[in-house]
Amino acid sequence: MSKLEIKSIKGMNDCIPNDVYVYQNIEIIFKSLMKNYSFNEIRFPILEKSILFYKGMKINNNFCNKEMYTFLDRNGVNLSLRPEGTIGCIRSYIQNNLFLKNILNKLWYLGPMFRYENTQKGRYRQFYQIGVELFGSLSVYTDLELILVIRRFFKKLGIINLLKLEINTIGSLEDRNKYVSYIKKRIKNEKFFLNFKNFDFNKINFFRLFNSKNKYIKNFCKNLPKIINFINNSSLLKFKKLCKNLDLLNIDYKINYNLVRGLDYYNDFIFEWTNDFLGKSICSGGRYDNLSFCLSSLSIPAVGCAIGLDRLVLLLKKYNNKYLNTNNYIDIYILSSFNNKSRLLGIKIVEKILNYFSNSIKVYNDHIKYKNLGKKILKIIKLKPRILIIIDKNELDNNYITVKNIILNNQKKVLYKDIINIIIFFLNNINNKIN
Questions:
Q1: What is the pLDDT of residues 257-301, one digit of tens each?
Q2: Tens of pLDDT along 182-198?
Q3: N or C: which end of the chain has fewer CB within 10 A?
Q4: Residue 424: left if φ>0, alpha if ψ -120 to 50, beta else—which one?
Q5: Cβ neighbours of residue 168 closer than 8 Å, sequence gap 6 or more
């Protein structure tokens, strides 16, 4: 094996063909579901002005400084690779005046995100997310619709029984500020925190303490009162209404009063779908009614979520092989590499086949020269194509082409003009056997 001098960046992984097919299988199911629910796809840049994320994440500049890929362009403008999709999506929604068209208030997107953080199972520095956002409604029924959409997606993938839906309410921004003030007071009396010389109250995201793996911090958080005790009556009533509707629809869920969001723009209803094998969420989201006002003069209520595609692939590889089927089989393999004349004939056959069968067939034309025809055919058969077309010296001299049915193990020699008829005949025989 040859040594490669320059390898990929840590946490930014190649997605080789067999893995790509797994992602594509998931995406096909998701796109079909989005069409069912009348969601529209939106595409926005992976690169944005850094100030967009600073404003969108409000006080959480520590995240922006430590976890984002940020740099100055040639004009001195501070730019960042998107660390998540929600802020870019709502920027695009407002900038393109989509709020004026009610039918475009349900959006979805898919693509890479970037965060500079430690890599681990299902978490990479370039990672892929599916995002779903619903704009313009404060109703708990919008929250309910989002849960049902994601639940149906997981059900179609056959993994709904492997996932737990956890929900919580974190109230309004004022409620959260009261809770954070309380946590600050408690921390000032904790010896563990006082031992940190660089502990900066202005930079730390106190909600992230709840996700800490440090046993002292976990114990500290365990003994704190729950945020539910700080939440206003209106938010509590909305949350109870949502829970009641989930019960009426027989949706399994668990109220987790320790559940918080790491980004500051969330309010009220939040949720996660988790799995024990992954040890972390595979989908998370919630309501962010104030985010639009942070970025513009508009106040657009919204709820949304993101699904981690990389984690989803890991889960399917572990539990559901059905969606690991790559469908990478070849219908027709053309061996046309004897000489230039045979290669040209092979290209003509490919075009003739595709002109007739359109998009319903997969053809591979082999241009690579071989030394031994018999050994070459044995290698091809291991790839399990349905039909093998051989253009070799004898075929060229006699104006015949050999067409071999690999599945049923028979073959015929035909003229170029009859190639489509024999392919149709063989494919019908194969389908009859399979069915």
A1: 888 876 678 999 999 999 988 878 999 999 999 999 889 989 999
A2: 888 877 766 666 555 45
A3: N
A4: alpha
A5: 227, 228, 255, 256, 257, 258, 259, 260, 269, 270, 271
